[in-house]
Amino acid sequence: MNSLYNVIIRPIISERSYDLMEQGKYTFEVAKDAPKQEIRQAVEKLFNVHVVKVNTMNVRGKEKRVRYQSGMTRSWKKAVVTLAEGEQIEIFATQQAPAEQ
């Protein structure tokens, strides 16, 4: 079993993830080989919350070009974690949504 900090790599901060937070859903980048059960345990232990559901998806890398050099961005795994009713992760709760311009 991986360390908790090796399972959850970083939170995903975007407009869509902020909209999902209002529904009690939090988005993380996770290890590519981490199963849903391991993601659930890591979130519950790190943030002291109860996880109801874990949805995962593999994000494919995009093809990019810089002048004549062609390459790919990295591929990674995303997890959307649904928490129990009325619970929230404090780290996200203290941050404000990105300001609109």
TrEMBL record:
<protein>
    <recommendedName>
        <fullName>Large ribosomal subunit protein uL23</fullName>
    </recommendedName>
</protein>
<comment type="subunit">
    <text>Part of the 50S ribosomal subunit. Contacts protein L29, and trigger factor when it is bound to the ribosome.</text>
</comment>
<keyword id="KW-0689">Ribosomal protein</keyword>
<comment type="similarity">
    <text>Belongs to the universal ribosomal protein uL23 family.</text>
</comment>
<keyword id="KW-0699">rRNA-binding</keyword>
<dbReference type="InterPro" id="IPR001014">
    <property type="entry name" value="Ribosomal_uL23_CS"/>
</dbReference>
<comment type="function">
    <text>One of the early assembly proteins it binds 23S rRNA. One of the proteins that surrounds the polypeptide exit tunnel on the outside of the ribosome. Forms the main docking site for trigger factor binding to the ribosome.</text>
</comment>
<keyword id="KW-0694">RNA-binding</keyword>
<dbReference type="InterPro" id="IPR012678">
    <property type="entry name" value="Ribosomal_uL23/eL15/eS24_sf"/>
</dbReference>
<dbReference type="InterPro" id="IPR013025">
    <property type="entry name" value="Ribosomal_uL23-like"/>
</dbReference>
<dbReference type="InterPro" id="IPR012677">
    <property type="entry name" value="Nucleotide-bd_a/b_plait_sf"/>
</dbReference>
<keyword id="KW-0687">Ribonucleoprotein</keyword>
<dbReference type="Pfam" id="PF00276">
    <property type="entry name" value="Ribosomal_L23"/>
</dbReference>
<dbReference type="GO" id="GO:0005840">
    <property type="term" value="C:ribosome"/>
</dbReference>
